[in-house]
Design goal:
alpha+beta; four-stranded mixed β-sheet; 3 domains; 56% helix; five-stranded mixed β-sheet
């Protein structure tokens, strides 16, 4: 949007002010006012997205500042306005929940719905926890910079990232290898790397980030974490030998492998899959890995054992791939039906407006809009059809080795 382009031209590298105010002049009752209002409404649709940005929360934040900074309001009026703002927020959430509950009725379909909170809970993993992300970034900085020293300082959740100019220059080269992004987070990171400030307050903990708004929250979406993941990525599987104490499983030495499955289709997903000849070990393996320790075990030289491991993985992959392809096609069919219902309603409305219009210019405008609607419908149908044919699971082996299970 032009609004974001305007902000980007002002808040850029070389700007010496600590804070920059961008004021957009909009005249009420004009076309610009209508467009601006629609832009704010569309931004509000994404307020529940993971990793919300300043643009999403800007409207509510601005209202809070307006109420707090107003000299014309008495303390009672200020409290009343704040309460009204809170009530409006609760009512908006209730309206969204009502709309979600009537989704099937609206489109005439029965589509399984999973809330954004459930999706976040399903995506939670030890491998994306703050502790592991910190280890990932620390390993990346130590290896990439090739200099002795501590880069993440502090024992508590709030830490200080300290990098000299030479170190930041090395990180810039890795940053440039990431896909280009206009996200404000990426711009701020690039600005710091190119600037002259050697320290940056950072945290891997969400609670600490909320308590200290000036700190940088290093989550999986931050460019530094993505740089670390890209740098530490391995094209060949890693061999490991592990030991773990567990009373729920039978003691002994077991071979295992970890595969990364990339599910392609309407929605791309990635997941780690554990494979072991013992079904119980296979089921518990992902929960055992975080508490296991590295140790040297007797090597397993029997090729037939690993061949059996590959055969078990192939069997699971084949079954899951067939299920995924079927589920992907079903999702596409639901979306095609929803798109068709929406297109028919849109075209019916435009046709009625054309038939009722007495103005040739308006009629011509509506006819053009109808033609564009049909073109958009055909393009979206083609994309969905392509998505239906793209369902697949790409499997890559990440690690393999042995795990020794002992009683506590």
């Amino acid at each position: 949007m032009r609004i974001e382009q305007r902000i980007g031209r002002i808040d850029r590298y070389g700007q010496k002010s600590e804070s920059v105010a961008i004021v957009n002049m909009v005249t009420p009752g004009t076309v610009d006012a209508d467009i601006y209002e629609r832009c704010l409404w569309r931004i509000g649709v994404f307020q529940h997205a993971v990793g919300g940005s300043e643009e999403i929360l800007g409207e509510i934040t601005q209202e809070l500042h307006d109420i707090a900074d107003s000299f014309s309001l008495t303390p009672e009026q200020r409290a009343q306005r704040l309460q009204q703002l809170a009530d409006n927020g609760i009512r908006q959430v209730q309206e969204e929940q009502t709309l979600e509950s009537k989704q099937a009725e609206l489109f005439g379909l029965t589509v399984p719905n999973q809330s954004w909170r459930q999706e976040i809970e399903a995506a939670e993993s030890f491998w994306l926890s703050p502790k592991v992300l910190q280890q990932c970034v620390s390993a990346y900085l130590s290896d990439a910079i090739e200099e002795d020293g501590e880069y993440l300082l502090g024992e508590k959740s709030l830490k200080t990232l300290r990098l000299n100019q030479q170190a930041r220059s090395k990180l810039i080269e890795d940053y440039k290898r990431l896909p280009r992004s206009a996200d404000p987070l990426a711009r701020q990171w690039e600005k710091w790397l190119k600037g002259g400030q050697p320290t940056l307050a950072v945290t891997f903990d969400q609670s600490a980030a909320s308590e200290s708004p000036q700190s940088v929250y290093l989550n999986v979406l931050h460019p530094l974490v993505r740089q670390a993941a890209q740098y530490l990525d391995r094209t060949e599987p890693v061999q490991v030998d592990l030991t773990v104490q567990c009373d729920e499983l039978k003691s002994g030495q077991y071979i295992f492998a970890i595969y990364r499955w990339r599910k392609c289709g309407v929605k791309t997903e990635e997941m780690l899959v554990a494979i072991s000849p013992d079904p119980q070990v296979e089921l518990a393996l992902m929960s055992l890995l975080p508490i296991a320790t590295n140790t040297k075990q007797p090597e397993v030289d029997d090729a037939t054992v690993y061949n059996a491991l590959d055969a078990r993985h192939y069997s699971r992959w084949t079954t899951e791939r067939a299920n995924h392809i079927a589920a992907n096609r079903e999702t596409v069919e639901h979306r095609v039906q929803s798109l068709t219902v929406s297109q028919n309603a849109r075209c019916k409305l435009l046709e009625n407006q054309i038939a009722a219009s007495r103005n040739d210019k308006i009629r011509l405008m509506k006819q053009s809009e109808l033609a564009r609607a049909n073109v958009d419908f055909a393009q979206q149908q083609a994309k969905l059809k392509q998505s239906a044919e793209s369902g697949d699971i790409h499997a890559t082996q990440c690690a393999y080795g042995t795990i020794q299970i002992a009683r506590k």
